[in-house]
C-alpha cells in the first residue's frame, strides 16, 4: 500500500559530492579550482534533486486516494499507466491538491472529472489545471438557466480556454475510458435533465479486476432513483458516499443496489451542515466500515484486482478482502 515517500537518494548523492569537493581542496596540498567548481556544481544539482519526488509506483492494479480537502471532495485515482483526478475541493485547497499530485509524482493528468459546478467540488480546479495540465476534462453539459455565474466557474472556463491541449468532453452515460491493464472508468450518470446542480453530478464506476469503485459527487435521492430505473450497473465494492453523507443521499434502495464492502466520506471536521448525518451513517454501517476524511485524513484504498487494502494518515492499515 503506497504511502507518500520523501526522496532520500538525492541526500546521499549530495553527501558524496561534498566529500569529493573536500578531497579536491586537499589534493597535492593545493586547491584545484576547476575540480572544486565541478564538484560544487554536482552538489548544487544533487541538492536540487532533493525537492524532486519521482512518481511512486501503484501497489497493485488500482489505487484510490481520498485527499483531505475539508468540506469538499477530491479523489486521485491511479493505475500503473494513468492518473485521474475527480474534483478539487474549494479554492483554498488548490495548493493541497497540487502538493499531493507533486508528492505522488504526477506531472500530467490523463483525465479530470468535475462532478458538478459547486465550489466545494471544483473551486480549486482552475489553479490545479494551471499547475498540472490534463489531457481530457469531463463535465456535465448544463442548460443556460443552470450555468453558474460564480468567479470560480469563470476561472475554470478561462483555464480550459488557455489549455488547448486539454480536450473537454461532456459526460455521457455509457462512455468508457481505459486506464490501462484492463482497468476501465465508465460514466453512469446523470441520466436525466435536472434543475439542481447536485443532481447533475457526474457518476462513474471504476472496474479493476474483480473489484469496483463508485463515485457519486453530490448525487441525491432523485438522481439515485433515476439511475436505478435506467438499469445502471451500480454494484461496487467501494462507495464514495454522495453529498458528504447528507440525509438526502445514500437511500436504502440505492445502497441495496450498490451493496458496498466499505464506504468513504469526504467531509470537513465540525462542519456546519451536520454531515454525515446519523441516519446516513446507520444505513452505511449495514454494509461494512465507513472511512471519513474528517477522522482519518487522507485515505488510500488499493486493490490487486482481488483483495482490498485500506490505509489512512490517522488509522491502522487493514485488509478488507
UniProtKB/TrEMBL annotation:
Residues 71-269 form the Metallo-beta-lactamase domain. Pfam families: Lactamase_B (PF00753). Coiled coil: none annotated. InterPro entries: ComA-like_MBL, Competence_DNA_uptake, Metallo-B-lactamas, RibonucZ/Hydroxyglut_hydro. It comes from the Bacteria. SUPFAM superfamilies: Metallo-hydrolase/oxidoreductase. This is MBL fold metallo-hydrolase.
